[in-house]
Amino acid sequence: MSQPTSFLKRGLKSALSIFVTQTKITKIDRLTENFILIEMAGTKLTEAKWVPGGKVQVDVGNLTFRTYTPIHLDTNEGKLSVLCYLREESPAAIWIHSLKVGDSCDVFGPRESLDLSHLEGDVALFGDETSLGITKVLQNQTDQKARVFLEVNSDHETKNALERLGVTNQTIIKRSTNNSHLEKMAEEMIELNRKNANLSTIFLTGRASSIQRIRLLLKESGIPNTKLKVRAYWADGKVGLD
Predict the structure, then answer these.
(1) Strands 55-59 and 104-111: what pairing?
(2) Distance between terminal CA atoms of the chain?
């Protein structure tokens, strides 16, 4: 890093310090090869205002922030848990590979994202590997009743991670090279909507292009746009969504 860039980043970090919560890593639990559950603790977390479904942004090095959905926030003990998915050699993946218990970690938030605190009726969620955090929160909020649809690279690994998290009631489909799996998944979601008159909300999360396709298919089937809640977590060739 050049000296001017280093100076600017130190100045920016100092300016952001009043908004950032300083924490220490207290636990690292490798659920599977690519799903890592990380717990961090910090005094300011006892004052945090978190709405289930909200997000935090974690500094994964050199003021590079990545967004995660807390699956648990204990304001009594000042502890926060996030589930991370390793996507290739991204800045977050490099950070996680080198992470140790006791390391410092700066966190921005919690902040608003999807509000799962006041759900009415039955709900469903579409997503992928990056959606397991919000999936866990959603099932906690619905006593495991939320219906979950996930597109993934490895169905075996994802099933193992979900089992460790205690998540049930899911449909997992491996990605196809031509994205035909999205049509199959949309068909199952449309059928669920047809059979369940009490289905009030379908959350669409994960990859932006997959959300776009699923959303179109659901709307073409007659599902109103008001029933769909969208939050893209990543897009091909882009970083820092949500």
Answers:
(1) antiparallel
(2) 27
Res. 10 pLDDT band, cuts 50 70 90: low
**Amino acid at site 227:** K
Local structure of residue 85 (DSSP, 8 states): E
Residue whose token pair is 């300016």: 15
**Separation between Cα atoms, residue 138 and residue 161, nearest integer Å:** 16
The single residue listed with the structure tokens 């196809």 is 176
pLDDT digits (tens, 9 = 90+) for 195-238: 999 999 999 999 999 999 999 999 999 999 999 999 999 998 77
Pick the closest to residue 230 from 143, 146, 131, 163 (CA basis): 131
CA 152 to chain centre: 14
| Placement of tokens 């996030």 in the chain | 82
pTM score of the predicted model: 0.90
Position 137, amino acid: V
DSSP code of 121? S
Give residue 18's pLDDT.
55
Strand partners, 85: 35
Q: Is 25 exposed, middle or buried (0-12, 13-18, 19+ CB in 10 A)?
A: middle
Q: 97-123: string of b/e by CB count within 10 Å (b at 16+)?
A: eebeeeeebbbbbbeebbebeebeebb
Residue 191, Cβ neighbours under 10 Å: how many?
11
Asked if 68 and 101 count as a contact pair (C-beta separation under 8 A), the reply is no
DSSP helix/strand/coil, 42:
coil
Give the separation between CA 180 and CA 193, rounded to whole angstroms.
Answer: 20
The structural domains of the chain, ordered by start, are: 6-111 (2.40.30.10), 122-234 (3.40.50.80)
